[in-house]
Amino acid sequence: MTGAAPFAVVSARGARRWEHGHPWIYRSDVAERPDAPAGIVPARDARGKPLGWALWSPKSEISLRLLTRDPGARIDAEWWRAAIGAAIDRRRPLRDAANAYRLVHGEGDGLPSLVCDRYDRWLVVQFMSAGLEAARGQVVDALRALVAPAGILARNDVSLRDKEGLPRAVELLHGEVPREIEVVEHGVRYLAAPWDGQKTGAFLDQRENRARIGAVARGRALDCFSYHGSFALHLARRADHVLALDSSAPALERARENAARNGLANVEFVEANAFDFLKSAERERRRFDTIVLDPPAFAKTKSALAAGLRGYKEVNLRAMRLLAPGGALFTASCSFHLTRPLFLEMLQAAAADSGRRLALREVVGQPLDHPEILTIPETGYIKGAIVEAVD
Ligand code: SAH
Questions:
Q1: What CATH number should be reported for the domain holding residue 147?
Q2: φ/ψ (deg, to 5) at 171
Q3: pLDDT for 49-82, tens place per residue?
Q4: How far is the CA of 143 from the centre of ligand 1 (A)?
Q5: Do 64 and 81 belong together in one domain?
Q6: Does residue 327 form part of some domain?
Q7: Residue nearest to atom 20 of ligand 1 (CA)
Q8: What is the four-CA torsion angle of 189, 194, 198, 200, rounded to 10 degrees?
Q9: Average pLDDT value over all residues in the chain
Q10: Last residue of a domain, one of 19, 51, 68
C-alpha cells in the first residue's frame, strides 16, 4: 500500500529487525510505502513512533536500509562526511601495511549499499541501491573532502543494481583514474585494474591472509586460483619455487608482469583447470610444501550450495593429499551461502577422505577493512583456514 505521507510505516516484524541490529526491511514489512521517489525517508512504526531514517528503494525487494535510528538526525552533507569519516578512521592501522584497502564496507560500516575502495591516490566506489544513488552527490563530496583523491571511479557494473531498477555503468565521477594502479601490500607490489578488473580492481579482502601464508611458505609452493598472482608473489618471497595456476591466460599474463615487478624469478605460470591439475598431480605423486586454494565462489546462490560443496571438497581433498609431510595449506571460500560451520565441516570431510593426518592451525575471517557484523550475516563471506600435514 502506498500511503499519502512522505514517510514509511514499518511492520512490527520490520521494527524488530532494526532493534536487533539488521538494517534491511523487505517489501513485505513495509506497512505503508512512502509517497516519495527513491532517496532518504523517515520511518515510523504502526503506532506512529519515529524509528529513524532509511534509504528508500521503491523497486527493490529490500525496500528500506537503515541509516540511523535517531529520528532527530539530519541526513545532510555533514552527516555523510561524519559517517564516512568514521569508517575511514577505523582503517588507520592499515595505512602502514598497504596503499590499497576498503574505506567503506557497506552495511559493515553502517553505510548500507555503499562500497568505497582506496587504491593509492584513487577511489573506486559502488552505489548498490536506488536510495543511495539519490545521495550520490553528497557521498562524492564527502569523499573528496575527506580523502582529496586524484580521481573517483564508479564501478556500478554490478548485477545487484538490476534489482534496484538502476542501470549498470562504469563512470568517472571526479578527476582521472588510470587503467592500472600499483598496489603495495605488505611489501609486495602488483597492478590493480580499476576499470575492468574483478570486483573494484583487485581482491583486497585477502590481503592479510596472503601475508599470513606468505610468512610460513617454504620449499615447493602451489597457488591454485592465482588470478593476478597476489598469493603467489607472497609465497615466492620465501618458497624456493612457486607454481601459479589459473584457467585464464590474461590473468596469468598479469601475474607474470607482477612477478617481474617484484624481481621474483622463481614463479612458474601454468594455464590449467585446477580440478584437472590436482588430479594429475596426485597421480604423478607430486608433493608441495605450501599450497593456496582461493577459488571463485563455487556456490553463488543457495540452490548451488550442494554442488558448490562438492567442488570445495574435491579441491581441498586433493590439495591435502599433495601436501608434503609438515606442509601447509591455506584454503578459503568466498561463497556467502557456505557458512563458517559448513566450511569447517567440508574441511573435516575432505580430511577424512584424504587419508592424511591434518592439524587445523588457524581459522580466519575478514580483515579490518571488511568488517563482518555479527547481526548482519550478509557483511561476511570469507572463511579461511590454515591446515598442516602432521605426517
Ligand atoms: N587468489 C586471487 C583471487 C582468485 S579469483 C587473489 O587473491 O587475487 C578466482 C580465479 O580463479 C580467477 O582468476 C579465475 O580465472 C580462476 N579460476 C576459476 N575457475 C578455475 C578453475 N577451474 N581452474 C583454475 N582457475 C580457475
A1: 3.30.750.80
A2: -135, 135
A3: 999 999 999 999 999 999 999 999 999 999 999 9
A4: 32
A5: no
A6: yes
A7: 247
A8: 100
A9: 97
A10: 68
> Residues 226-242: pLDDT tens digits?
999 999 999 999 999 99
The reported pTM is 0.96
Same domain, 139 and 158: yes
CA of 246 to the centre of ligand 1 (A): 6
What are the DSSP calls for 310-364, one per residue? HHHHHHHHHHHHHEEEEEEEEEEE--TTS-HHHHHHHHHHHHHHHTS-EEEEEEE
In this structure, is residue 17 part of a structural domain? yes
Last residue of a domain, one of 16, 48, 68: 68
Q: How many structural domains does the chain have? A: 3
The DSSP code for 2 is: B
Mean pLDDT of 90-115: 97
- Mean pLDDT (whole number) for 128-142: 98
224 flagged as catalytic? no
Asked whether residue 274 falls in the same domain as residue 345, the answer is yes
pLDDT in tens, 247-302: 999 999 999 999 999 999 999 999 999 999 999 999 999 999 999 999 999 999 99
Q: 349-361: per-residue pLDDT in tens?
A: 999 999 999 999 9
Ligand 1 lining (C-beta closer than 6 Å): 203, 206, 225, 227-228, 230-231, 246-248, 251, 273-275, 294-296
Residues 268, 349, single domain; the answer is yes
Provide the pLDDT for residue 2. 64
Which of 200, 208, 246, 291 has most ligand 1 atoms within 8 Å of CB, for mutation? Answer: 246
Q: Point out the ligand 1 atom lying closest to the alpha carbon of residue 251.
A: 13
Range of the domain at 158: 77-175
What is the arithmetic mean of pLDDT over 137-152? 98
The active-site residue, picked from 104, 334, 351, 385, is 334
Looking at the structure, do residues 32 and 126 belong to the same domain, yes or no? no
Cell 550478509 locates to 378
Q: How far is the CA of 154 from the centre of ligand 1 (A)?
A: 24
Q: Which amino acid is at 351?
A: A
CA distances from 42 to 75, 107, 243, 282, 356 (A): 10, 18, 55, 60, 58
